[in-house]
Amino acid sequence: MSMHEKQLNNDLFQPAVRSSDDAEKITKESTSFWQDARRRLFENKGAVAGLIIIVAILLLAFLGPLFSHNGFDDQDTSRTNLPPRIPVLENVGFLGLDGVDIRGVDQYKMKNQKDNYYWFGTDALGRDQFVRVWKGTQISLYIAFLAAAIDMIIGVAYGAISGYYGGKTDNIMQRIIEILIGIPNLIVVILLILILDPGIISITFAMVITGWTTMARIVRGQILKLKNQEFVLASLTLGAKSSRIVTKHMFPNILGSIIITSMFTIPSAIFTEAFLSFIGLGISPPTASLGSLVNEGFKSLQIYPHLVLYPAVIISLIMISFNLLGDGLRDALDPKMRK
Amino acid sequence: MVRFVLKRLLYMLITLFIITSFTFFLMKLLPGSPFNNEEKLTDQQKFILNEKYGLNDPVPVQYLNYMSNLVKGDLGVSFQYDNRPVSTMITERIGPSAVLGVEATIIGTIIGLILGIAAALKHNTSIDYLSSLFAVLGISIPSFVFAGVLQYYVGVKLGWLPVALWDGPKYHVLPALSLSVFVIATVARFMRTEMLEVLGQDYITTAKSKGLSNLVVIWKHTIRNAMIPVVTILGPLAINLITGTLIIEKIFAVPGLGFQFVSSIQLNDYPVIMATTIFYSVCFIIVILIVDILYGVIDPRIRVAGGKG
Amino acid sequence: MKKSKWSLLLTIVLVLSVFLSACSGKKEEKANGNTSSNGGGSKEKVLNLMETSEIPYLDNIMADDQVSLNLANNVYEGLYTLNEKDEPVLSGAAEEPEEKDGGKTWVFKLRDDAVWSNGDPVTANDYVFAWRKAVSKDTATQYSFIYQVAGILNADKILNPEDPMYNKTDKLGIKAIDEHTIEVKFAGPTSAKPYLKAVLSFPTFYPQPEKFVKEQGKQFALEADKALYNGPFALTKWEHEKGWVLEKNDKYWDKKNVKVDKINVNILKDEATRINLFETGKLDRTSISAEYVDQYKDKKDIFSTVPESSVFFLRMNQKNKALANKNIRHALDMGWDKKQLTDVLLNNGSVPAYFLVPSKFVNGPDGADFREKNGDLNKGDAKQAKDYWEKGLKELGVKKLDLTLLNYDTDTAQKDAQFIKNQLEKNLPGLSLKIKAQPFKQKLKLEENMDYDISYAGWGPDYPDPMTFVDMFVTGGSHNEMNYSNKKYDELVKKASSETDLKKRWEMMQQAEKILIEEDAAISPMYQRGYAFITKSNIKNIHNHSFGGDYSYKDWDVE
């Protein structure tokens, strides 16, 4: 006991010289929310892969047509409905890229096209499907971005306002959605055909009218769920403004749903575009989009599967990469996932 | 709650009135007459035909006539199909569409939930990737492509199931499966996202640390809380399927309502357009009401009925 | 915990029920062959056919579409019926009519063994009732005009809202002399209408059982048992939107010549579905489109093409200054390869058209086809087209032309239009042709308002005579719709419609066609439509009609 006291006396200690400023000092480099999000996005392998595929498809959409000496409307009835044939790969039997159709006939031989290679085959008018698919991708990508933008801008805002303010506002806004959904779309579209000239603007217009309702309803549902939760109440009692609560507190929490919902909007927009173009509101033929190529090719699914296969694969690829990127984005932007 | 529902039903009448009126006048703006061989009719014939169906009256008069008949429960008769009452036409055709829609919704929801939950619980494993891949394909490839492939391979090549037609339960499998692909994808996708969201919440950690079994945590705390978006989107999706899908019904020769609606608009069959619109709207509005009520059941903190805060 | 168990249980039950309902099913349907033994050993002959839409009208007077007309043609019967060569032969009438008033009145003796499916005899009164019903304003059938085509006395007045005789149906030129004799009066000499008997075979002229129709009131012909049948078959089952069943009518007077016992008709709107059903033996016959023709054309026992009498052509609206120029029109007509369109794109038995009146449609008084004399008109090539084009442009004083092609919103029409656009733009330098597809009704409206440049149009005959085509383009005619006017043409058409010298009449119509196409290039004919079919090889004696109902199943047989 005495030994102990002897060894530890006050002289052995000295007060540390430390200002209160130092306590607040952060040695690690500070990152903003967005910097942090970006870092996490690029750490996510899936998201990076998605991004690379999107860029690749974008490049191909614009450069792809240059690989072929055919224009997208170069018809030749002597080379109709040729199955795909790709140099080198044609020698690998199981790939089915040797120009032999499903009935086992070498169409290139039969139609005297032995020296030609159509990578994605040709259609009923003898047009090079490779060029058409990439030309179509351009249009479909535009439609995809457009649909996503409409969803993000109109749908999210509408749903957020409706859900957040609730009560009468919500009631009226939801009834308006019901009316918009209740009135048959096809009638509205046909009437649009009467007043608008076909083209990309009229498609945009047709989609603006009802394209965003699902998003609005999803966002509203989520906001309804969130607005009575503790952290929102806390923020309210601390005197935060509505706009701050919605954008800073609720928005990051519903981002996942928003991203997923827009993933649904995109393919449905791509096929809506195909339908609109078909009945005369969209881009007039011979220009094609991925959606219209699938619709057209589907008619001969059993005989010329290549006509539907390639555009469908590209749409799927676009969607898969968007989803990978979307998932990555969600993880990166979600404040709760922050480590 | 009863008051809330009654109030909403009253709103429904107002909404329906607006939808009906709008559709009526928009429909009258559509070009052309409701007659089959319009291109061959002479002016005299057009006059006689219009007279028979009361189409020579000014549109507002036609509107008033229609509305007063509607209040009496008379939906009118079809132009396309020889004076057949529109109400009979809908009741004749809704059966197959509804059966198919319900089957597809049930199959889709169950498989979708399983896939979505599995993907979330096994986040970033091959199960997750496979389920997500399937979901994305289900969203991006239209159901008619699946239908075509199923019909050809399962129906023709393998001969396991009937190619098409509507003659008993066997005939439901392929169309119901084709329709359910989109439902599966939707439910799986939303479920996964929301599950991941919920799994990160503090109360899950709390529940786990309390020593609750994994199953209880997942079932009671996670799934229920993750259901909001699924329910929001599933309601209208189910209504779309139940009221008939044009292409799937066409491919499998299902005698449903899907074709009727589209062709009535293309051919200006006014009474059929109106009746199907009203029918669809009623279904849709009721489902939205149910969804709003379900919000409260799923998450008692949500009150759609009340005002802000 | 309790609750979750329940949900789990519910889930399992649901999965199981779906699974079970999928697997059980009812007993396998009867063998799908065309012949199934029928108890005692006599073979029942069954046909499995399809239509693309529900029956719009079971009432033969209302019938105005292919499905209804075809049905009416098989379950009902009128004075005449068309045989396999499309010639009218006696059916409801017992003998050829006795002519009176210099051919302006025909007296028909009816068969006294013809009965309705409830056993009541088909009487003269049933004809009078039906014909009056057809021209009544309360019926307002779209085919009432066929009474004007036939020239039945007063039909045009009864159908004209401005005439004092409007809707006075008892003034129609038909009278029952006794139970089995009718007297039909015509407005003009019947000898000017060589096609009259064929027109009388049209379903709008069939009788209806007055008593039954009145009993049923609004319910008449809404269901299979709400109508009576006097034709070779009776409709015994009708499931709306799904299909129907025709069975041999054992009350039919000529039932010994009806070979098939039963016809199942399913509504199949999708082509791939039809082909898949055909492949699995559930369907005996279906039409196929270009894509599938390659697949089947070498199978000679099942593949066939059938020419039809519809002609498709490009209307050129002369309200457009450029299209008012004859050389431009000639250039547009010759500037593309019609043969490639029919052989490669349509690929279904359609033939290139250099004419308005289709081939193999009707024979003239000399027994020769209408086409034999006129042949192919304006059969030029790209080089000729270019010459015309340059001449036209010079006359117009322009170097470039922007035109729009109004089109249907159907798959085939869109493909055809893209082909024509591509060809024309290649062969006629300076031309830019924009394709404008529109929903059907809107397209008709634009044509009616003459608010288009060029339009993809078609015409099928209403009665078996070239006049149904030729009189379309008279000045101010309601089907002209392109501001075409040629005095010489008008004159010829007018004269031909009242000419009783059949040979002269024939030549006038041929001359008119020549003016329309060769001289004026008013339209650019595209093709005469054909259909490609695949049919089970054991089905025999199939033929189709060029107007009215498509088929007479009475003659079909199953081996």
TrEMBL record, chain A:
Presence of the UniProt keyword Transport in the record: yes
What CDD domains does UniProt report for this protein, alphabetically? TM_PBP2 (cd06261)
Q: Where are the transmembrane segments?
A: 47-67, 139-164, 176-194, 200-219, 254-283, 303-329
Q: Membrane topology type, per the record?
A: Multi-pass membrane protein
Q: Which SUPFAM superfamilies match?
A: MetI-like
The subcellular localization recorded is: Cell membrane
Q: Know the name of this protein? A: Oligopeptide transport system permease protein
Automatic annotation (TrEMBL), chain B:
List the GO biological process terms: transmembrane transport
The record describes its membrane topology as: Multi-pass membrane protein
Q: Where in the cell is it found?
A: Cell membrane
Alphabetical list of InterPro entries matching this protein: BPD_transp_1_N, MetI-like, MetI-like_sf
Q: Does the keyword rRNA processing apply?
A: no
Q: Where are the transmembrane segments?
A: 9-27, 98-121, 133-153, 173-191, 230-252, 272-298
Q: Which residues form a coiled coil?
A: none
Where does it sit, as one GO cellular component term? plasma membrane
Q: Does the keyword Membrane apply?
A: yes
One Pfam family, short name please? BPD_transp_1_N
User: Which UniProt key words apply to this protein?
Assistant: Cell membrane, Membrane, Transmembrane, Transmembrane helix, Transport
Where in this chain does the record put each ABC transmembrane type-1 domain? 94-291
Q: Which family does it belong to?
A: Belongs to the binding-protein-dependent transport system permease family.
- According to UniProt, the name of this protein is Oligopeptide transport system permease protein
Q: Show the taxonomic lineage.
A: Bacteria, Bacillati, Bacillota, Bacilli, Bacillales
UniProtKB/TrEMBL annotation, chain C:
Q: Which molecular function GO terms apply here?
A: peptide transmembrane transporter activity
Query: What Gene Ontology terms describe where this protein resides (cellular component)?
Result: ATP-binding cassette (ABC) transporter complex; outer membrane-bounded periplasmic space
Q: What sequence ranges are listed for the domain Solute-binding protein family?
A: 92-478
This protein's UniProt keywords: Peptide transport, Protein transport, Signal, Transport
- GO aspect biological process, one term: peptide transport
**Which PROSITE patterns does the UniProt record give?**
PROKAR_LIPOPROTEIN (PS51257)
Q: Where are the transmembrane segments?
A: none
Q: Where in the cell is it found?
A: Cell envelope
**Which family does the record claim for this protein?**
Belongs to the bacterial solute-binding protein 5 family.
| Name by which UniProt lists this protein | Oligopeptide transport system substrate-binding protein
